[in-house]
Amino acid sequence: MAFSLHGVKVPHRKNTANIAAVKMASPATVVLPTAMHIGAPATPVVKVGDHVDIGTLIAAQNGAVSSPVYSSVSGTVKKIEDFLTSAGKYVPAIVIDSDGADTVADVTPPHVDSKESFIEAVKLSGLVGLGGAGFPTYLKFATDKPIEQLIINGTECEPYITSDTRTMIDDADSIADAINIIDKYFDIKEYIIGVESNKKDAIAKMQKIAEGNSKVKVKVLPSRYPQGGEKVLIYNTTGKVVKAGCLPADVGVLVFNCTTMAYISRFIKTGMPVVAKTITVDGGAVKEPKNVTVPLGTSLKDVFDFCGGFTTDPVKVLYGGPMMGITVPSVDAPVLKQTNAVLALTAKETRMPSQTACIRCGTCANTCPLGIDPAAIAKNYAAGNIEVLGKLGIQVCMECGCCSFNCPATRPLVQTNKMAKVAYRDYMNNKNKEENK
Questions:
Q1: Which of 67, 98, 222, 379 is the Cys-Cys partner for 37 at CB 3.0 to 4.6 Å?
Q2: What value does the CA radius of gyration of the chain take, rounded to a whole number of Å?
Q3: pTM for the full model?
Q4: Exposed e or buried b per residue across 270-304, where buried means at least 16 C-beta atoms within 10 angstroms of its C-beta
Q5: Is 303 helix (H, G, I), strand (E, B) or coil?
Q6: C-alpha angle 243/244/246, rounded to 5°?
Q7: Are the beta carbons of 174 and 213 closer than 8 angstroms?
Protein backbone atom coordinates (compact mmCIF):
# COMPACT_ATOMS: atom_id res chain seq x y z
CA MET A 1 0.00 0.00 0.00
CA ALA A 2 1.69 3.19 -1.18
CA PHE A 3 0.76 6.71 -0.16
CA SER A 4 1.43 9.79 -2.23
CA LEU A 5 -0.06 13.04 -3.36
CA HIS A 6 -2.15 11.05 -5.84
CA GLY A 7 -5.81 11.90 -5.97
CA VAL A 8 -7.85 14.12 -8.26
CA LYS A 9 -8.40 17.77 -8.96
CA VAL A 10 -12.06 18.48 -8.28
CA PRO A 11 -13.97 21.74 -8.84
CA HIS A 12 -13.81 23.78 -5.65
CA ARG A 13 -17.21 25.47 -5.88
CA LYS A 14 -16.59 27.09 -2.50
CA ASN A 15 -19.45 29.51 -3.05
CA THR A 16 -20.02 30.18 0.66
CA ALA A 17 -16.41 30.53 1.81
CA ASN A 18 -16.83 34.25 2.46
CA ILE A 19 -20.19 33.89 4.22
CA ALA A 20 -20.02 33.75 8.02
CA ALA A 21 -22.50 31.35 9.59
CA VAL A 22 -25.92 32.70 10.53
CA LYS A 23 -27.92 31.19 13.36
CA MET A 24 -31.21 29.52 12.56
CA ALA A 25 -34.06 29.77 15.07
CA SER A 26 -35.43 26.64 16.68
CA PRO A 27 -37.81 24.78 14.34
CA ALA A 28 -41.26 23.58 15.39
CA THR A 29 -40.04 19.98 15.72
CA VAL A 30 -36.72 18.17 15.87
CA VAL A 31 -35.99 14.49 15.31
CA LEU A 32 -32.92 13.29 17.23
CA PRO A 33 -31.71 9.78 16.35
CA THR A 34 -29.92 8.00 19.18
CA ALA A 35 -27.13 7.01 16.76
CA MET A 36 -25.39 10.07 15.36
CA HIS A 37 -22.06 8.34 15.74
CA ILE A 38 -20.17 5.15 14.94
CA GLY A 39 -21.06 2.44 17.47
CA ALA A 40 -24.02 1.47 19.63
CA PRO A 41 -27.07 3.75 19.73
CA ALA A 42 -27.51 5.73 22.93
CA THR A 43 -30.27 4.62 25.31
CA PRO A 44 -33.29 6.96 25.66
CA VAL A 45 -33.69 8.33 29.20
CA VAL A 46 -36.84 10.38 28.55
CA LYS A 47 -40.41 9.36 27.88
CA VAL A 48 -43.30 10.80 25.90
CA GLY A 49 -44.67 13.90 27.61
CA ASP A 50 -41.43 14.88 29.36
CA HIS A 51 -40.35 18.52 29.23
CA VAL A 52 -36.79 19.13 28.08
CA ASP A 53 -34.57 22.17 27.71
CA ILE A 54 -31.65 22.90 25.42
CA GLY A 55 -28.85 20.71 26.79
CA THR A 56 -31.05 18.18 28.62
CA LEU A 57 -29.73 14.62 28.38
CA ILE A 58 -32.27 12.60 26.38
CA ALA A 59 -30.22 9.47 25.54
CA ALA A 60 -27.32 8.10 27.57
CA GLN A 61 -24.13 6.55 26.24
CA ASN A 62 -24.54 2.81 25.72
CA GLY A 63 -21.17 1.06 25.96
CA ALA A 64 -17.66 2.24 25.16
CA VAL A 65 -18.25 3.02 21.49
CA SER A 66 -21.28 5.24 21.85
CA SER A 67 -22.14 8.86 22.58
CA PRO A 68 -24.87 10.64 24.58
CA VAL A 69 -27.53 12.77 22.89
CA TYR A 70 -28.89 16.05 24.25
CA SER A 71 -31.97 18.05 23.38
CA SER A 72 -31.37 20.87 20.91
CA VAL A 73 -34.59 22.73 21.74
CA SER A 74 -36.81 23.33 24.73
CA GLY A 75 -40.21 21.68 24.57
CA THR A 76 -42.00 18.36 25.00
CA VAL A 77 -41.08 14.85 23.95
CA LYS A 78 -43.75 14.00 21.39
CA LYS A 79 -42.79 10.41 20.60
CA ILE A 80 -39.95 7.93 20.34
CA GLU A 81 -39.98 6.17 16.99
CA ASP A 82 -37.82 3.98 14.78
CA PHE A 83 -35.43 5.86 12.51
CA LEU A 84 -33.71 4.32 9.48
CA THR A 85 -30.04 5.34 9.39
CA SER A 86 -27.90 5.64 6.26
CA ALA A 87 -26.28 2.35 7.33
CA GLY A 88 -29.62 0.62 6.81
CA LYS A 89 -30.35 0.01 10.50
CA TYR A 90 -33.30 1.14 12.59
CA VAL A 91 -32.52 3.01 15.83
CA PRO A 92 -34.77 4.90 18.25
CA ALA A 93 -35.25 8.58 17.48
CA ILE A 94 -36.62 11.09 19.98
CA VAL A 95 -39.09 13.57 18.48
CA ILE A 96 -39.43 16.85 20.37
CA ASP A 97 -42.00 19.62 19.78
CA SER A 98 -40.35 22.97 20.48
CA ASP A 99 -42.10 25.49 22.73
CA GLY A 100 -40.18 28.34 21.09
CA ALA A 101 -38.84 29.56 24.43
CA ASP A 102 -35.28 28.26 23.90
CA THR A 103 -34.93 27.63 27.63
CA VAL A 104 -31.46 26.38 28.49
CA ALA A 105 -30.85 23.50 30.89
CA ASP A 106 -28.83 24.04 34.04
CA VAL A 107 -25.42 23.24 32.59
CA THR A 108 -22.10 23.99 34.25
CA PRO A 109 -18.53 23.78 32.95
CA PRO A 110 -16.94 20.40 33.76
CA HIS A 111 -14.20 20.20 36.38
CA VAL A 112 -11.04 19.29 34.51
CA ASP A 113 -7.71 18.96 36.29
CA SER A 114 -6.20 15.77 34.85
CA LYS A 115 -6.02 13.63 31.73
CA GLU A 116 -8.72 11.34 33.12
CA SER A 117 -11.13 14.17 33.95
CA PHE A 118 -10.50 15.74 30.54
CA ILE A 119 -11.39 12.47 28.78
CA GLU A 120 -14.51 12.15 30.94
CA ALA A 121 -15.54 15.71 30.04
CA VAL A 122 -15.15 15.03 26.33
CA LYS A 123 -17.20 11.84 26.77
CA LEU A 124 -20.03 13.76 28.48
CA SER A 125 -20.04 16.46 25.81
CA GLY A 126 -21.52 14.10 23.22
CA LEU A 127 -18.74 15.12 20.85
CA VAL A 128 -18.03 12.93 17.84
CA GLY A 129 -15.94 13.48 14.73
CA LEU A 130 -17.73 16.48 13.26
CA GLY A 131 -16.02 16.24 9.89
CA GLY A 132 -18.32 13.38 8.93
CA ALA A 133 -16.78 10.27 10.49
CA GLY A 134 -18.84 10.36 13.69
CA PHE A 135 -16.32 8.42 15.81
CA PRO A 136 -16.75 9.24 19.54
CA THR A 137 -14.03 11.79 20.23
CA TYR A 138 -13.17 10.74 23.77
CA LEU A 139 -12.08 7.28 22.58
CA LYS A 140 -9.21 8.74 20.57
CA PHE A 141 -7.88 10.49 23.68
CA ALA A 142 -8.28 7.33 25.75
CA THR A 143 -5.46 5.51 23.96
CA ASP A 144 -2.62 4.15 26.10
CA LYS A 145 -0.15 4.54 23.24
CA PRO A 146 2.39 7.41 23.28
CA ILE A 147 1.28 10.26 21.04
CA GLU A 148 3.89 12.42 19.37
CA GLN A 149 1.75 14.50 17.04
CA LEU A 150 -1.81 15.79 17.01
CA ILE A 151 -3.03 16.77 13.56
CA ILE A 152 -5.86 19.26 13.16
CA ASN A 153 -7.69 18.62 9.91
CA GLY A 154 -8.65 21.87 8.20
CA THR A 155 -8.27 20.62 4.64
CA GLU A 156 -11.99 20.49 3.74
CA CYS A 157 -11.19 19.11 0.29
CA GLU A 158 -14.73 18.28 -0.90
CA PRO A 159 -16.42 20.68 -3.33
CA TYR A 160 -19.01 23.12 -1.92
CA ILE A 161 -18.32 22.56 1.79
CA THR A 162 -16.99 25.59 3.73
CA SER A 163 -18.28 25.10 7.28
CA ASP A 164 -14.83 24.09 8.58
CA THR A 165 -13.28 27.01 6.73
CA ARG A 166 -15.61 29.35 8.63
CA THR A 167 -14.65 27.70 11.93
CA MET A 168 -10.98 28.42 11.22
CA ILE A 169 -11.74 32.01 10.25
CA ASP A 170 -14.45 32.88 12.79
CA ASP A 171 -13.48 30.73 15.78
CA ALA A 172 -9.70 30.39 15.60
CA ASP A 173 -9.45 31.35 19.28
CA SER A 174 -11.38 28.22 20.29
CA ILE A 175 -9.02 26.04 18.24
CA ALA A 176 -6.01 27.70 19.91
CA ASP A 177 -7.60 27.29 23.33
CA ALA A 178 -8.31 23.60 22.71
CA ILE A 179 -4.64 23.07 21.87
CA ASN A 180 -3.63 24.72 25.15
CA ILE A 181 -6.11 22.62 27.15
CA ILE A 182 -4.99 19.35 25.58
CA ASP A 183 -1.34 20.24 26.05
CA LYS A 184 -1.84 20.44 29.82
CA TYR A 185 -2.74 16.78 30.09
CA PHE A 186 -0.99 15.04 27.20
CA ASP A 187 2.68 14.71 26.35
CA ILE A 188 2.33 15.76 22.71
CA LYS A 189 5.45 17.08 21.01
CA GLU A 190 3.86 18.76 18.00
CA TYR A 191 0.51 20.08 16.81
CA ILE A 192 0.13 20.22 13.04
CA ILE A 193 -2.69 22.14 11.38
CA GLY A 194 -3.24 20.87 7.84
CA VAL A 195 -4.94 23.36 5.51
CA GLU A 196 -5.30 23.28 1.74
CA SER A 197 -3.66 26.11 -0.19
CA ASN A 198 -6.97 27.46 -1.52
CA LYS A 199 -8.01 28.72 1.94
CA LYS A 200 -5.91 31.88 2.29
CA ASP A 201 -7.92 33.54 5.08
CA ALA A 202 -8.04 30.33 7.11
CA ILE A 203 -4.30 29.81 6.66
CA ALA A 204 -3.62 33.32 7.95
CA LYS A 205 -5.74 32.65 11.06
CA MET A 206 -4.04 29.32 11.73
CA GLN A 207 -0.57 30.85 11.27
CA LYS A 208 -1.41 33.35 14.01
CA ILE A 209 -2.03 30.39 16.32
CA ALA A 210 1.38 29.00 15.37
CA GLU A 211 3.04 32.37 16.02
CA GLY A 212 1.77 32.23 19.59
CA ASN A 213 2.69 28.61 20.28
CA SER A 214 6.05 27.07 19.36
CA LYS A 215 4.54 23.57 19.37
CA VAL A 216 2.13 24.43 16.57
CA LYS A 217 3.02 24.14 12.89
CA VAL A 218 0.80 24.99 9.93
CA LYS A 219 1.21 22.68 6.95
CA VAL A 220 -0.14 24.21 3.75
CA LEU A 221 -1.12 21.34 1.46
CA PRO A 222 -1.90 21.15 -2.26
CA SER A 223 -5.58 21.58 -3.09
CA ARG A 224 -6.07 18.00 -4.18
CA TYR A 225 -8.86 15.63 -3.19
CA PRO A 226 -8.88 13.57 -0.92
CA GLN A 227 -6.31 15.56 1.02
CA GLY A 228 -8.48 15.32 4.16
CA GLY A 229 -8.58 11.51 4.22
CA GLU A 230 -7.11 10.54 7.59
CA LYS A 231 -4.34 8.26 6.32
CA VAL A 232 -3.54 10.59 3.44
CA LEU A 233 -3.36 13.59 5.76
CA ILE A 234 -1.09 11.77 8.21
CA TYR A 235 1.34 10.83 5.45
CA ASN A 236 1.33 14.26 3.82
CA THR A 237 1.97 16.07 7.12
CA THR A 238 4.27 13.65 8.95
CA GLY A 239 5.50 11.08 6.41
CA LYS A 240 4.09 8.28 8.58
CA VAL A 241 2.15 5.38 7.06
CA VAL A 242 -0.83 3.88 8.88
CA LYS A 243 -0.91 0.28 7.68
CA ALA A 244 -4.05 -1.73 7.02
CA GLY A 245 -5.75 -2.75 10.25
CA CYS A 246 -3.92 -0.11 12.28
CA LEU A 247 -5.06 3.16 13.83
CA PRO A 248 -3.32 6.56 13.77
CA ALA A 249 -2.39 6.07 17.43
CA ASP A 250 -0.34 3.05 16.37
CA VAL A 251 2.09 5.46 14.69
CA GLY A 252 1.93 8.02 17.48
CA VAL A 253 -0.64 10.33 15.88
CA LEU A 254 -4.11 11.63 16.71
CA VAL A 255 -6.26 13.40 14.09
CA PHE A 256 -9.15 15.74 14.87
CA ASN A 257 -11.32 17.88 12.64
CA CYS A 258 -10.85 21.61 13.28
CA THR A 259 -14.52 22.07 14.26
CA THR A 260 -14.23 19.16 16.70
CA MET A 261 -11.30 20.98 18.31
CA ALA A 262 -13.29 24.19 18.62
CA TYR A 263 -16.14 22.32 20.31
CA ILE A 264 -13.76 20.89 22.91
CA SER A 265 -12.87 24.41 24.01
CA ARG A 266 -16.49 25.56 24.04
CA PHE A 267 -17.65 22.64 26.18
CA ILE A 268 -14.83 22.99 28.70
CA LYS A 269 -15.71 26.69 29.06
CA THR A 270 -19.51 26.48 29.12
CA GLY A 271 -20.62 22.91 29.80
CA MET A 272 -23.07 23.11 26.90
CA PRO A 273 -22.95 19.77 25.04
CA VAL A 274 -23.25 19.32 21.29
CA VAL A 275 -26.75 20.55 20.45
CA ALA A 276 -26.17 22.47 17.21
CA LYS A 277 -24.02 22.21 14.11
CA THR A 278 -22.75 24.71 11.58
CA ILE A 279 -23.33 23.35 8.08
CA THR A 280 -22.94 24.53 4.51
CA VAL A 281 -26.18 24.72 2.53
CA ASP A 282 -25.50 24.84 -1.20
CA GLY A 283 -26.14 23.31 -4.61
CA GLY A 284 -27.66 24.60 -7.82
CA ALA A 285 -31.23 24.20 -6.55
CA VAL A 286 -30.70 26.33 -3.41
CA LYS A 287 -31.90 29.93 -3.72
CA GLU A 288 -29.60 31.44 -1.06
CA PRO A 289 -26.53 29.27 -0.35
CA LYS A 290 -25.00 30.04 3.04
CA ASN A 291 -23.43 28.62 6.19
CA VAL A 292 -26.00 28.04 8.90
CA THR A 293 -25.79 27.10 12.57
CA VAL A 294 -28.67 24.66 12.98
CA PRO A 295 -30.19 22.93 16.02
CA LEU A 296 -29.52 19.20 15.72
CA GLY A 297 -32.53 17.26 14.52
CA THR A 298 -33.84 20.09 12.32
CA SER A 299 -35.32 18.75 9.09
CA LEU A 300 -33.48 19.50 5.87
CA LYS A 301 -36.72 21.03 4.59
CA ASP A 302 -36.64 23.62 7.38
CA VAL A 303 -32.97 24.32 6.64
CA PHE A 304 -33.59 24.79 2.91
CA ASP A 305 -36.61 27.01 3.67
CA PHE A 306 -34.34 29.15 5.87
CA CYS A 307 -32.10 29.53 2.81
CA GLY A 308 -34.94 30.82 0.63
CA GLY A 309 -36.17 27.44 -0.61
CA PHE A 310 -35.45 26.03 -4.06
CA THR A 311 -35.10 27.74 -7.41
CA THR A 312 -36.03 24.42 -9.01
CA ASP A 313 -36.94 21.02 -7.66
CA PRO A 314 -33.69 19.24 -6.73
CA VAL A 315 -32.93 15.93 -8.42
CA LYS A 316 -30.72 14.79 -5.58
CA VAL A 317 -30.20 15.91 -1.97
CA LEU A 318 -27.03 14.93 -0.13
CA TYR A 319 -25.63 14.83 3.37
CA GLY A 320 -22.05 16.01 2.80
CA GLY A 321 -20.19 16.67 -0.43
CA PRO A 322 -20.61 15.29 -3.94
CA MET A 323 -17.63 12.92 -3.66
CA MET A 324 -18.42 11.02 -0.46
CA GLY A 325 -21.83 12.38 0.45
CA ILE A 326 -24.87 10.20 1.11
CA THR A 327 -28.14 10.65 -0.75
CA VAL A 328 -31.08 11.30 1.56
CA PRO A 329 -34.46 9.79 0.66
CA SER A 330 -36.45 12.82 1.80
CA VAL A 331 -35.96 16.42 2.91
CA ASP A 332 -37.66 15.33 6.14
CA ALA A 333 -34.29 13.83 7.14
CA PRO A 334 -32.70 15.61 10.13
CA VAL A 335 -29.39 17.41 10.56
CA LEU A 336 -27.05 15.09 12.52
CA LYS A 337 -23.91 15.67 14.58
CA GLN A 338 -21.70 14.55 11.72
CA THR A 339 -23.53 16.59 9.07
CA ASN A 340 -21.13 19.19 7.68
CA ALA A 341 -23.17 20.14 4.61
CA VAL A 342 -26.47 19.55 2.83
CA LEU A 343 -26.58 19.93 -0.92
CA ALA A 344 -29.61 20.20 -3.21
CA LEU A 345 -28.42 19.43 -6.72
CA THR A 346 -30.05 20.01 -10.10
CA ALA A 347 -30.40 17.64 -13.04
CA LYS A 348 -27.38 19.26 -14.71
CA GLU A 349 -25.23 18.73 -11.62
CA THR A 350 -26.21 15.09 -11.26
CA ARG A 351 -26.18 13.98 -14.89
CA MET A 352 -24.50 10.59 -15.20
CA PRO A 353 -22.45 9.98 -18.38
CA SER A 354 -22.86 6.72 -20.25
CA GLN A 355 -20.68 3.84 -19.07
CA THR A 356 -18.39 2.10 -21.53
CA ALA A 357 -16.05 -0.88 -21.34
CA CYS A 358 -12.84 -0.73 -19.31
CA ILE A 359 -9.95 0.26 -21.59
CA ARG A 360 -7.28 -0.95 -19.11
CA CYS A 361 -5.64 2.47 -19.00
CA GLY A 362 -4.69 2.23 -15.31
CA THR A 363 -6.04 5.70 -14.48
CA CYS A 364 -7.96 4.41 -11.47
CA ALA A 365 -4.86 2.81 -9.95
CA ASN A 366 -2.70 5.84 -10.73
CA THR A 367 -5.06 8.25 -9.00
CA CYS A 368 -5.90 6.10 -5.94
CA PRO A 369 -4.37 7.84 -2.90
CA LEU A 370 -3.94 4.50 -1.14
CA GLY A 371 -2.31 2.71 -4.07
CA ILE A 372 -4.91 0.00 -4.74
CA ASP A 373 -6.14 -1.17 -8.15
CA PRO A 374 -9.92 -0.68 -8.47
CA ALA A 375 -10.05 -2.28 -11.94
CA ALA A 376 -8.51 -5.50 -10.61
CA ILE A 377 -10.91 -5.45 -7.67
CA ALA A 378 -13.90 -5.02 -10.00
CA LYS A 379 -12.71 -7.90 -12.20
CA ASN A 380 -12.25 -10.33 -9.29
CA TYR A 381 -15.46 -9.26 -7.56
CA ALA A 382 -17.42 -9.94 -10.76
CA ALA A 383 -15.71 -13.34 -11.08
CA GLY A 384 -16.51 -14.26 -7.48
CA ASN A 385 -12.84 -14.42 -6.44
CA ILE A 386 -13.62 -12.96 -3.02
CA GLU A 387 -10.50 -14.21 -1.24
CA VAL A 388 -8.32 -12.39 -3.79
CA LEU A 389 -9.95 -9.08 -2.84
CA GLY A 390 -8.03 -9.06 0.43
CA LYS A 391 -4.72 -9.44 -1.38
CA LEU A 392 -5.72 -6.52 -3.60
CA GLY A 393 -6.26 -4.30 -0.53
CA ILE A 394 -10.02 -3.88 -0.65
CA GLN A 395 -10.13 -3.50 3.14
CA VAL A 396 -8.16 -0.24 3.02
CA CYS A 397 -10.35 1.48 0.41
CA MET A 398 -11.76 4.64 1.97
CA GLU A 399 -14.43 5.02 -0.72
CA CYS A 400 -13.23 8.47 -1.72
CA GLY A 401 -14.40 8.04 -5.31
CA CYS A 402 -11.22 9.20 -7.05
CA CYS A 403 -11.28 6.09 -9.24
CA SER A 404 -14.78 6.72 -10.53
CA PHE A 405 -14.21 10.46 -10.90
CA ASN A 406 -11.19 10.00 -13.19
CA CYS A 407 -12.28 6.87 -15.08
CA PRO A 408 -12.51 7.71 -18.80
CA ALA A 409 -15.03 4.87 -19.21
CA THR A 410 -17.11 6.30 -16.31
CA ARG A 411 -17.32 2.89 -14.66
CA PRO A 412 -18.91 2.69 -11.16
CA LEU A 413 -15.64 1.66 -9.52
CA VAL A 414 -16.21 3.12 -6.06
CA GLN A 415 -19.69 1.58 -5.92
CA THR A 416 -18.16 -1.79 -6.83
CA ASN A 417 -15.51 -1.31 -4.16
CA LYS A 418 -18.22 -0.75 -1.55
CA MET A 419 -19.97 -3.99 -2.48
CA ALA A 420 -16.64 -5.82 -2.66
CA LYS A 421 -15.77 -4.69 0.87
CA VAL A 422 -19.02 -6.11 2.21
CA ALA A 423 -18.48 -9.39 0.30
CA TYR A 424 -14.91 -9.73 1.60
CA ARG A 425 -15.95 -8.93 5.17
CA ASP A 426 -18.70 -11.56 5.03
CA TYR A 427 -16.26 -14.05 3.53
CA MET A 428 -13.73 -13.51 6.31
CA ASN A 429 -16.39 -13.69 9.03
CA ASN A 430 -17.65 -17.02 7.68
CA LYS A 431 -14.09 -18.31 7.32
CA ASN A 432 -13.28 -17.42 10.92
CA LYS A 433 -16.46 -19.12 12.14
CA GLU A 434 -15.54 -22.29 10.30
CA GLU A 435 -12.00 -22.27 11.67
CA ASN A 436 -13.23 -21.74 15.25
CA LYS A 437 -15.73 -24.60 15.23
A1: 67
A2: 22
A3: 0.94
A4: ebbbbbbbbbbbbbbbbeebbbbebbbbbbbebbb
A5: helix
A6: 70
A7: no
